[in-house]
Design brief:
- This protein is mainly α.
- It has a domain of about 50 residues.
- The chain has four helices and no strands.
- The protein is rod-shaped.
Length: about 100
């Protein structure tokens, strides 16, 4: 320790905040070193079909197709270009299945 008021406070942010709030004053400067938290799965569950996801987004938000596709891409963590390519592929597969007389679902 190199400074008169230097100290190390380990703990979670709420624990450290409670400790500091209980003090009459904080002397000197404060530096926070924050460790990365645990990785968690995104709470958003997307339909497997990007076409279905796009239809849901358009219905829910009222956005036009291009804006809804941008939103769908963002929720899926992909670029708008990749979302459009996936949509084109699904549409192509659906058309091929219809030509063969199969149910595309």
């Amino acid at each position: 320790m190199t400074k008169i008021h230097e100290e190390f406070l380990p703990g979670t942010l709420p624990e450290i905040l409670a400790d500091l709030r209980a003090r009459p004053a904080i002397k000197g400067e404060v530096t926070l070193v924050i460790e990365p938290g645990e990785q968690t799965q995104a709470a958003t569950v997307c339909p497997d079909s990007i076409m279905q996801h796009l239809e849901q987004e358009m219905s829910k938000s009222g956005l036009p197709r291009n804006e809804a596709l941008k939103s769908v891409a963002q929720r899926r963590g992909i670029s708008r270009r990749d979302a459009y390519k996936q949509l084109e592929e699904e549409l192509r597969m659906k058309e091929e299945a219809e030509v063969r007389g199969q149910n595309p679902e």
